[in-house]
Amino acid sequence: MARATRLLSLFVFTLSVSVIGCGKNFEVPTDELTQIENGNDNTDQGTNNPTPTDPDAEDPVGLNPVDYSNPVLDSQFSKLPNGKDLSSISVNGTKLTLTRGSGNTFTAALKADYQALKTATQTDPKHKVQWTLMDLSSHQVIAKSLSSHKKLFGASSSKIYVGSALVDKQNGSISSSQLQLMADMLVVSSNTAWTNLQSQIGGGDSNKGREYIHNFTQRMGYKLTRGYQGYWGSTHGNELVPDEAVETLYDLYRNAFPGASIVWKLMHTCRTGSSRGLKYIPSSIYVGGKTGTYDGPTENPETGASYNVAIRNHLMVFYAGRRQYGLAILSNSGSDQSAALLAGGLIREYAGVK
Predict the structure, then answer these.
(1) Which residue of 210, 280, 300, 326 lies most exposed, with the fewest beta carbons within 10 A?
(2) pTM surpassing 0.70?
(3) Which three-class secondary structure state does DSSP give residue 26?
(4) Which regions are flagged for Low complexity bias (predicted)?
């Protein structure tokens, strides 16, 4: 009996040391600043609300170490690998803050609209809205549309690939000026920063930048993705695939390449999408992501012919129900409401959010 007692004491001590050794504080960070800037993406700004009380933060038991890569469980989430705090970075004159859901009520009528849209996307192979939802904690796709394997125009959502290729090429180390451009590109969707960084990836040559970005996406296993802006030779860029986009979110989440955490954390300060994916997500939930908006002609990824699109994309990550999720919505619907309904419905149906 005494031996059993000693063993139990040793187990409790070991467990305590292991938890302390994680170096994590499970308090929810305070964030009272507001986001007020609009981006070049022409989407509305995100919403910041008073610090939520999140019951998920009270019981981290059973999570893998990577699951602490979110603002709920990691009190140091706002710190970048070089020690710089996100709150010390300004974009368009405003300090960066963590984004949360807009908190609009998801009514019974909206739930019905969600179910109708979800059913349509899962039965019509040519539907203009395609999406994939992944549980990043387990790396399992838990729901998706019928044609989530097909390419659609990425618009500004492709900017995460430019940022990822840059940090990968430089082994996770970027200059202060590059970090500023990265923030401009991901937070307010600056197109000037986008093309500037793409050129820098190529050593001042945009075409070589496109080549590196393409090689990066192929090496990472995103075989259909064209994450660069413009044409690389005769190959049209800026084409994304929902299934591959959530794999990208997974790789950013698990810090699968040098500097991935920089992109992952900056995505959590994005100011666009409050009338899109953020719209019906509760204000207690932190959301990272990147929108994409474009109206006009582009190349049809299936036929190569020119056609007109009305893109309203939203790539998103959020932590709910003690799980980390990634959601890729590529929409040619011309309406923010498609992404809003899908995000609001899917987070309730699969993540248990009320």
Answers:
(1) 300
(2) yes
(3) coil
(4) 37-51
39 or 312: which leads in pLDDT: 312
Residue 50 is given by DSSP the state S
Q: Are 100 and 48 in contact (CB under 8 A)?
A: yes
Question: CA nearest 290: which of 256, 243, 240?
Answer: 240
Reduce the DSSP state of residue 109 to 3 states and report it.
helix
Q: pLDDT tens digit string along 231-273?
A: 999 999 999 999 999 999 999 999 999 999 999 999 999 999 9
CA distance between the termini of the chain: 47
Sort 171 into a burial class: Cβ within 10 Å, 0-12 / 13-18 / 19+. Answer: exposed
CA–CA separation, 21 and 169 (whole Å): 31
Contact assessment for residue 279 and residue 312, using Cβ atoms and an 8 Å cutoff: no
Helix (H) or strand (E) holding 323: strand 323-331
Q: pLDDT by residue (tens digit) across 160-187? A: 999 999 999 999 999 999 999 999 999 9
* Neighbouring C-beta atoms of residue 18, cutoff 10 Å: 9
State how far the Cα of 78 lies from the Cα of 71, in Å rounded to an integer: 8
Whether 300 contacts 306, CB under 8 Å: yes
167: left (phi over 0), alpha (psi -120 to 50) or beta: alpha
Q: What is the residue extent of each domain of the chain?
A: 29-351
Residue of 19, 51, 17 whose CA lies nearest to 33: 51
Alpha-carbon span 270 to 288, nearest angstrom:
7
